[in-house]
Design brief:
Elements: H1 2-5, H2 21-41, H3 52-60, E1 62-63, E2 81-85, H4 88-92, E3 97-101, E4 106-110, E5 118-123, E6 134-135, E7 141-143, E8 151-153, E9 192-193, E10 198-199, E11 204-206, E12 217-218, E13 226-232, E14 238-239, E15 251-258, E16 263-264, E17 269-275, E18 278-279, E19 284-287, E20 291-292, E21 299-305, E22 313-319, E23 325-326, E24 331-334, E25 342-350, E26 355-356, E27 361-367, E28 371-385, E29 401-404, H5 411-418, E30 431-437, E31 439-444, E32 449-457, E33 467-480, E34 483-496, E35 512-516, E36 520-527, E37 530-541, E38 545-547, E39 551-554, E40 559-573
Parallel strand pairs: 1-6, 9-16, 11-17, 18-26, 20-27
Antiparallel strand pairs: 2-5, 3-4, 7-8, 10-12, 13-14, 13-15, 15-17, 19-21, 21-24, 22-23, 22-25, 25-27, 28-31, 28-33, 29-30, 30-32, 32-40, 33-34, 34-35, 35-39, 36-37, 37-40, 38-39
């Protein structure tokens, strides 16, 4: 109890508002009122106390006739307690102040009133040695001094506190409002517990986007009775003045703090908020067209649309099998770089721990194909060979038929090689090639089509009379989407003459063959600004032949044919016609 009496000067701020002067004033008043309760319980009568100074003096006085008194017999208040009164300017503000109510025998706090109230209570060391005198008090009970009972009983009326009633002020219709209640008429004391603030968002798990919506605190109590204070993540408490944002994982605490002693502060309310992990939405790939044109519109402009909120992700894309790259804005894709069409991929990459990166969007950019009609003819020219090369072609001559090798022995060869016995020499025949052209229609660009056929006779010729290479010219008459063109493509053929082993169990070991030195022609063709190259390959053969794309084998002494396939391959634009 002695600690209570001395607590006014030392009381700190509450857990809610450690630095609030208002909270300290409310706490001081609560302590003083408890001292008044102790004063009354010890037989004191506060009904004659009309102002704060007389109340404090009464609480500081010692009482007499207390030898057999029940309860505390000393002063109820530290003698150093003093008051500071508001100035006239302070009284006109809405600062919290303290008045004494002689009706309820209580101190109370309010922010209203015209007369200056108590601004603060403080310890005044100059009062430490002041004698506040003695006070005679009557008692309901005392320890027995005249009777054999525990205490003597006296017919003394106990001081009472006025009944708690609500005061209602009525303003006459034709008059001005009455003067507000002053410090000598504070009204009755009504003590009740405040309701906690209402929080706009309940505890729970929300999407990250919902954390953009502020949290609002609503005070459900009557105006002027309390202020709302709040704390986020156990930080310092602060007065609520406006909605505020919270982050995922936050904890919000709020409390209504009483501004007068007529109320007790509310219970604290706590809310906690978590964010759920979500996956970002995939970006939208938006090309200005989905098909590369053949002669025109060969470049496509591509835009990525971000469907997610700004700041939580970045966009990345890649073209075909190229590396991923950051999206900085519209990009261009040219048919010349991707003559077979291309796949565009895009994704949203998370920058926020509460989101997962999106799935990958896909968009195929296809090709407009050209319709190619035409036909081909072919011719051989410029043969090269061994030291005694024998051929039907002379320098500068070209023909679709080419033969090489000598098919007879000279007499000296018979004498030297076969000892003059001609009947022991093998039968000879010339080797030859023949090219036949072919017509074609409705061929798509980049598609293989049959351009002609090649016949090969693997003859037996005299040594050193064979050819080792020949040039094949393939002349094409083309119509590509209405554009006519005639061009010739040259291919070098190597003629491989294999020495004969005459092994009956492996006839293919003696097979000679034709090899494409380069399946792609050295020259190209340009149509309407688009450059093309032409390549050929060997295809299906007859029974005595065998082909491997660029090689065509024929058994010794046999004849076979193979199909020749050509492909018109688009290289790209020489200039842009978009």
């Amino acid at each position: 109890m002695i600690s209570i009496l001395a607590a006014v000067g030392y009381v700190g701020t509450s857990e809610i508002v450690s630095s609030s002067k208002n909270q300290k004033l409310v706490s001081d008043v609560s302590t003083l009122n408890r001292s008044i309760d102790a004063y009354i319980a010890s037989g004191g009568d506060p009904s004659s106390l009309k102002d704060p100074a007389s109340v404090l003096n009464a609480l500081k006085a010692n009482r007499v006739n207390n030898s057999n008194a029940v309860g505390l017999v000393g002063a109820k208040l530290d003698p150093r307690i003093n008051i500071e009164t508001q100035s006239a300017a302070d009284a006109k503000s809405d600062d919290l102040r303290v008045y004494w109510s002689s009706t309820t025998n209580r101190f109370y706090t309010t922010s209203e009133g015209d007369a200056p109230g108590i601004k603060r209570f403080f310890l005044d060391e100059s009062l430490a040695e002041v004698d506040f005198g003695e006070q005679k008090q009557s008692y309901l009970f005392k320890y027995a001094s005249e009777d054999s009972w525990i205490w003597d009983f006296e017919e003394t009326r106990a001081p009472t506190r006025a009944a708690a009633t609500l005061a209602v002020k009525t303003v006459p219709e034709s008059t001005t409002p009455p003067d507000p209640v002053g410090p000598t008429n504070p009204g009755p004391e009504v003590i009740s517990t405040l309701q906690p603030p209402e929080v706009s968002r309940e505890s729970g798990t929300y999407s990250y986007a919902e954390f953009n919506q502020p949290v609002t605190l609503t005070n459900p109590n009557i105006s002027g009775a309390s202020d709302v204070f709040y704390s986020v993540d156990y930080a310092n408490w602060q007065l609520y003045t406006a909605p505020f944002l919270v982050s995922p994982g936050s904890r919000v605490s709020a409390q209504a703090i009483a501004k007068t002693t007529n109320y007790e502060s509310s219970p604290r309310v706590d809310k906690s908020y978590e964010a759920k992990i979500e996956q970002l939405r995939a970006p939208i790939i938006s090309p200005d067209r989905t098909t590369f044109g053949f002669f025109f519109g060969r470049t496509i402009n591509v835009t990525l649309i971000e469907p997610n909120d700004p700041g939580i992700s970045v966009l990345e894309y890649r073209i075909g099998g190229d590396p991923w790259q950051s999206y900085e804005g519209e990009f261009k894709v040219n048919r010349s770089d991707y003559p077979s069409g291309v796949l565009i991929q895009a994704r949203s990459v998370s920058l926020n721990p509460y989101y997962l990166s999106s799935t990958t969007s896909l968009r195929t950019l296809s090709l407009e194909t050209a319709e190619i009609d035409g036909g081909s003819v072919g011719s051989f020219s410029d043969p090269t060979g061994e030291s005694l090369l024998t051929t039907n072609l002379v320098t500068g001559q070209a023909s679709d038929y080419f033969e090489w090798g000598r098919d007879y022995f000279t007499s000296s060869e018979i004498n030297n090689w076969y000892y003059g016995n001609a009947s022991s020499a093998p039968a000879l025949d010339k080797a030859w090639l023949n090219y036949s052209g072919n017509s074609f229609e409705s061929v798509s660009g980049g598609t293989r089509f049959e351009v002609g056929s090649l016949e090969y006779h693997n003859g037996t010729i005299v040594a050193n009379t064979g050819a080792t290479a020949i040039k094949l010219g393939v002349d094409l008459n083309l119509d590509i989407d209405g554009l006519a063109a005639t061009t010739s493509f040259d291919f070098n053929l190597d003629l491989i003459n294999v020495p004969n082993a005459f092994n009956s169990s492996d006839l293919w070991a003696d097979a000679d063959y034709v090899k494409l030195a380069n399946p792609v022609a050295d020259n190209t063709i340009v149509l309407n600004g688009v450059e093309f190259q032409f390549r050929i390959e060997f295809g299906e053969t007859t029974s005595d032949g065998l082909s491997y794309f660029d090689e065509f084998y024929v058994l010794e002494g046999k004849e076979a044919s193979t199909k020749v396939y050509g492909t018109l391959v688009e290289i790209g634009s020489l200039d842009f016609n978009d």
